[in-house]
């Protein structure tokens, strides 16, 4: 009995030594991976790893390590804030983005993932990065857009600034010979052009005019007049009476929705900049990198 126990103990000891040897053999590999994937920055206790830095370098085409880390810090701050507010994008969003990313590189999703894996980037790493990218960009825009309103006045101002609004006026016009001036002065209902035309002769025309279409003296008076007003002007040969019936706006260039989208984008950009500055000021950020290029 004693010998059998000794034999079993010896077997267990040999087995234990074998397991320990295997662990020791695998330890340098594990340590090597840990050292390679070291922490390059810390954002409110959340690490940014070397592998993420490498992926960002491939994704953005940027080699400057410090610039890359600061970009990633900004994105982590934004994503942390959005998640703290209970905001997130559906998982399908990042999946579709990943498919489009592969397509833009002329590859199927499987081929793209294999290529990334050959660069030392796992599908899990890639998906996490895409989630960070989509949430910090599209997600932020969706989140901030809810706080943005665009008024009709802002749209009109934007159109005017870009010269996309053209005004026209609908008028009634009566042209009289200059020798009818004295007779015209005797009439007491000049605002009624039909009465004036009947009294002095002449034909009323109904026109749509743009600024500069009429003879200069009349053009100036018409474009100063409000709707319903009658103006009088003259030149060397004629007396002109015109009544403004209506002002019309004609739009060119962008649609109202396109202009609204541009205004929203500008407002969102300003809000995002303000938010990021606030998050940087309040957050804990520790950057642990050298100034060498990402490899």
Describe the structure.
The chain has 295 residues and is an alpha+beta fold. The protein folds into three domains: 1-36; 41-149 and 268-287, Porin chaperone SurA, peptide-binding domain (Triger factor/SurA peptide-binding fold, Orthogonal Bundle); 165-251, Chitinase A, domain 3 (Roll), CATH 3.10.50. It contains eleven helices and seven strands. Helix 4 crosses helix 6 and helix 6 (123-145) crosses helix 11 (256-282). The longest helix has 35 residues, at 2-36.
Write the layout of secondary structure elements.
Elements: H1 2-36, E1 39-43, E2 46-49, H2 50-60, H3 65-84, H4 91-104, H5 109-118, H6 123-145, H7 152-161, E3 165-177, H8 181-186, H9 193-200, E4 204-210, H10 216-224, E5 230-234, E6 238-251, H11 256-282, E7 285-287
Antiparallel strand pairs: 1-2, 1-7, 3-4, 3-6, 5-6
Helix pairs in contact: 3-6, 3-11, 4-5, 4-6, 6-11, 7-11
Q: Topology as H/E string?
A: HEEHHHHHHEHHEHEEHE
| The CATH class of the largest domain | Mainly Alpha
Q: How many separate domains make up the residues?
A: 3
Helix content: 55-70%
State the fourth-level CATH superfamily of the largest domain: Porin chaperone SurA, peptide-binding domain
Tell me the radius of gyration: 38 Å
Average pLDDT taken over every residue: 84
């Amino acid at each position: 009995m004693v010998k059998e126990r000794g034999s079993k103990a010896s077997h267990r000891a040999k087995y234990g030594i074998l397991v320990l040897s295997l662990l020791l053999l695998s330890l340098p590999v594990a340590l090597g991976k840990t050292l390679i994937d070291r922490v390059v920055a810390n954002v409110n206790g959340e690490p940014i790893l070397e592998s993420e830095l490498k992926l960002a370098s491939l994704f953005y085409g940027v080699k400057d390590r410090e610039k890359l880390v600061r970009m990633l810090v900004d994105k982590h701050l934004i994503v942390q804030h959005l998640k703290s507010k209970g905001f997130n994008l559906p998982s399908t969003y990042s999946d579709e983005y990943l498919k489009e990313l592969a397509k833009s590189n002329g590859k199927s999703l499987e081929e793209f993932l294999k290529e990334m894996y050959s660069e030392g980037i796992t599908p899990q790493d890639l998906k996490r990065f895409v989630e960070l990218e989509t949430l910090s960009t599209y997600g932020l825009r969706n989140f901030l857009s809810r706080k943005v309103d665009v008024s009709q006045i802002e749209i009109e101002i934007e159109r005017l600034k870009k010269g996309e609004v053209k005004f026209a006026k609908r008028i009634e016009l009566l042209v009289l010979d200059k020798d009818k001036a004295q007779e015209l002065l005797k009439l007491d209902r000049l605002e009624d052009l039909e009465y004036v035309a009947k009294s002095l002769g002449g034909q009323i025309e109904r026109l749509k005019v743009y600024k500069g279409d009429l003879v200069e003296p009349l053009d100036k008076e018409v474009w100063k007049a409000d709707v319903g007003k009658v103006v009088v002007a003259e030149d060397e040969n004629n007396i002109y009476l015109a009544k403004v019936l209506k002002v019309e706006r004609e739009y060119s260039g962008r649609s109202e929705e396109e202009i609204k989208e541009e205004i929203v984008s500008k407002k969102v950009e300003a809000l995002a900049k303000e938010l990021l500055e606030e998050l940087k000021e309040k957050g804990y950020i520790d950057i642990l990198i050298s100034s060498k290029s990402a490899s």
